[in-house]
Amino acid sequence: MADLAxxxxxxxxxxxxxxxxxxxxxWAAVDDEGLHLTAPDAMLDAWRDSYEPVxxxxxxxxxxxxxxxxxxxxxxxxxRR
Length: 81
Hints:
Blueprint: H1 2-8, H2 12-24, E1 28-31, E2 34-37, H3 40-50, H4 67-79
Helix pairs in contact: 1-2
């Protein structure tokens, strides 16, 4: 469980809650190899049906920066706000 929480960059409690919710809905199971999805299509269908896009203005952007350069440029720009 700790590996999953670390990989997802969430708290151990949140990872545990998600795991429990997936199992409660019978979308996942746990075996000797760990947690795995048993009904990925049902999970995605439920997500699609309940998803509400963020309202407001959408913008599209393009940059030639990637990786660390992009990260640093974004941090610098956003820290000025």
